[in-house]
């Protein structure tokens, strides 16, 4: 069953918008919410920056972290590929920096006939040395707020079937498993 996003006042801050329900379920609501709340309390005092990578230099700075998830993308092709995808499909890289890039997400906004406008996260990765510190969750919540700002009905995420630890993380963030993704290799 699909639910529209609950209306959020433009006066509410990004943190409040990120906590509002998606698909009728509170983002971040889970059995481990006490642990997440503790992480949020100390993370809120950290000097972090979250934004979309716009410049060539910002895109290149995201490569070491994204290469942990996508090792087949060499640095010399990375920025050119991201810039080409940005122009042709609206692909964007969002990153969280706390001194250096700690987490990266690749996403795009699109629309389907059956469900309307949505944001899809194709890549979400935290640097291996920075995992379990809340950076991935913080970037995820920022993307939720961006999807709401863009008036998306839903936030989706594509993840390989072998990534069981990542799937548990997404479920703790309030995401639900709702579809199967099929592919056919042509080359």
Provide a short characterization of the protein structure:
By secondary structure, the protein is α+β, with helices and mostly antiparallel strands. Helix content is 37%, strand content 20%. It has one domain: Aminopeptidase, CATH 3.40.630.30.
What does this structure look like?
A hairpin with a 3-residue loop joins strand 2 and strand 3. The protein has a five-stranded mixed beta sheet with strand order 1-2-3-4-5, with helices on both faces. Helices cover 37% and strands 20% of the residues. The longest helix has 15 residues. The protein has one domain: 3-Layer(aba) Sandwich (Aminopeptidase). With 187 residues, the chain is of the alpha+beta class. The N terminus is likely disordered.
Topology, element by element:
Layout: H1 14-19, H2 33-43, E1 49-52, H3 56-69, H4 75-89, E2 92-97, E3 101-112, E4 116-126, H5 135-149, E5 154-157, H6 164-172
Parallel strand pairs: 4-5
Antiparallel strand pairs: 1-2, 2-3, 3-4
Helix pairs in contact: 3-4
What is the beta-strand fraction?
A: 15-25%
The fold-level CATH name is Aminopeptidase
* Count of all domains: 1
CATH class: Alpha Beta
Overall spatial form: globular
Span between termini: 37 Å
